Automatic annotation (TrEMBL):
Domain Rhodanese: 15-98
Pfam families (alphabetical): Rhodanese
The species this protein was found in: Compostibacillus humi
Organism domain of life: Bacteria
Lineage: Bacteria, Bacillati, Bacillota, Bacilli, Bacillales
Protein name: Rhodanese-like domain-containing protein
UniProt xrefs under InterPro entries: GlpE_sulfurtransferase, Rhodanese-like_dom, Rhodanese-like_dom_sf
Gene3D superfamilies linked: Rhodanese-like domain (3.40.250.10)
Length: 98
């Protein structure tokens, strides 16, 4: 499974790179702030919301600490998606939030 650190992802955003970020945390966690532009799909909803994701796109998957996003990545990889797990999750995120 491909991995990226919070710092590396923050650098991509600050350079203006077009990135697709999926936040798999629960509603109450996302309410405390998410990476600007991230799409919120709670982990448990991923199987029934696959139609919202494009297999031709690359996605960065984010959660609180990197565990749930790892599970989401595993599931998405098995279903033919190109994904990267943000290790350390939002606990390591020092960039802007919305």
């Amino acid at each position: 499974m491909k991995e990226i650190t919070a710092k590396e992802l923050e650098k991509k955003l600050s350079k203006g790179e077009q990135v697709n970020i999926i936040d798999v945390r629960e509603d109450e966690e996302v309410a405390t702030g998410k990476i600007p532009g991230a799409k919120h799909i709670p982990l448990g909803q991923i199987p029934k919301r696959l139609n919202e994701l494009n297999k031709n796109e690359h996605y960065y998957i984010v959660c609180r600490s990197g565990g749930r996003s790892g599970s989401a990545c595993q599931y998405l990889i098995e279903n033919g998606y190109n994904v990267t797990n943000m290790v350390g999750g939002m606990l390591d995120w020092e960039g802007e939030t919305e």
